[in-house]
Amino acid sequence: MNCIAIIPARGGSKRIPRKNIRDFLRKPVIAYSIEAAIKSEIFDEVMVSTDDNEIAKIAKDYGANVPFFRSYESSTDTASTIAVLTEVLSEYSKTGKTYINMCCIYPCAPFVTAGRLRNSYEKFIADKTNSAFPVVKFSYPPQRCLVIRNGKVMMLHPKNYTIRSQEFEPLYHDAGQFYFGKCDVIVREKRLFCENSTPIVLPESEVQDIDTEEDWIIAEMKYKILQAGR
């Protein structure tokens, strides 16, 4: 089979309790990832990997498959996303289902759309790279970052004090939304992305980490603005 979407959704989130199924503008936030994956029509299978009965029920209600539950080892606070992905691929392999490509879509990523997934997959295939994932440019050059030490503020890199912001090379960070990759490479290298990766550059308006209550409020505000403009 060609491509599987894996949505890892553990039940024991700490910073925002029950984060993965908390209502985001009137529906569970995981529903956005599931619906985008299904509507993209690029996946042979859209599945949710979870250790939680309530998450499993909600995932099924929105059209995802939950063919098995996570092992204890891949459900702990320290379990990595890679551990979850390799476990899922291994379990499917036991039933005779193997995939060439996969896409890990995080459950708390309401800005992901079917169109974005479809276009990213097409670029991933066309570029013939091992992985593709969204990135966003830092809004302010990290080269001019400040640190506070002993109650005093100072530049981490004093040599950059006189350099204009526009002269620095643009730097990007992982948008933390989804990752396309070749299954054999992901399993072998045990990384979500490697050096041979295609960047999917997103505008800052479509990216928001959601780790705190304040983040959640900002994400909802951004989402409303984006929807109003469409």
Helix and strand topology:
Layout: E1 3-8, H1 29-40, E2 45-49, H2 53-61, H3 81-94, E3 101-105, H4 114-127, E4 131-137, E5 146-149, E6 152-155, E7 172-174, E8 178-182, H5 183-189, E9 197-202, H6 213-228
Parallel strand pairs: 1-2, 1-3, 4-9
Antiparallel strand pairs: 3-8, 4-7, 4-8, 5-6
Helix pairs in contact: 1-4
Structure report:
By secondary structure, the chain is an alpha/beta fold. The protein has one domain (3-136, 173-228): Spore Coat Polysaccharide Biosynthesis Protein SpsA, Chain A (Alpha-Beta Complex). The protein contains 6 helices and 9 strands, in the order βαβααβαβββββαβα. It has helices at residues 29-40, 53-61, 81-94, 114-127, 183-189, 213-228, and strands at residues 3-8, 45-49, 101-105, 131-137, 146-149, 152-155, 172-174, 178-182, 197-202. The strands form 2 sheets. Strands 1, 2, 3, 4, 7, 8 and 9 form a 7-stranded mixed sheet that branches. Strands 5-6 form a two-stranded antiparallel sheet. Helix 1 packs across helix 4. The longest helix has 16 residues, at 213-228. The model has no long low-confidence stretch (mean pLDDT 94).
